[in-house]
Hints:
- By secondary structure, this protein is mainly beta.
- The chain has one domain: CATH 2.40.50.180.
- Helix content is 12%, strand content 45%.
- The chain has a five-stranded mixed sheet with strand order 3-6-7-5-4. A three-stranded antiparallel sheet has the order 2-1-8.
- The N and C termini lie far apart (53 Å).
Amino acid sequence: xxxxxxxxxxxxxxxxxxxxxxxxxxxxxxxxxxxxxxxxxxxxxxxxxxxxxxxxxxxxxxxxxxxxxxxxxxxxxxxxxxxxxxxxxxxxxxxxxxxxxxxxxxxxxxxxxxxxxxxxxxxxxxxxxxxxxxxxxxxxxxxxxxxxxxxxxxxxxxxxxx
Length: 162
């Protein structure tokens, strides 16, 4: 017997982690987020893609950390007292890899019903459309629901940009 019924599964699949980045609200599917940790020291690693700030130790695991603003090519995250790292499980050809994404501030976890998810417009977003999976209606606004598979593309991030 399965402990989750269809309604519970729908609820989980409609949950999104909302966060602030450069004064804008973004969302990722909550299932992608393993945990959220306070900003901690990041050790730089030479010859990595510029958006990979380095690595940090989270619960004994060495986790690469991606600066989301740098990945979107719109700047770099300023470290403040609410800066956090979202630890994401990324599936790379069947292998689960932990990666961290640097954000300004966690906003909340909330539901966005699938009927409130719309296609991304071809223009009008601060970030490249390829990083946006859908636009989600949250309260009275539409916010970008990010495509973590594209943002954390290991092949692209592994390329040295030095």
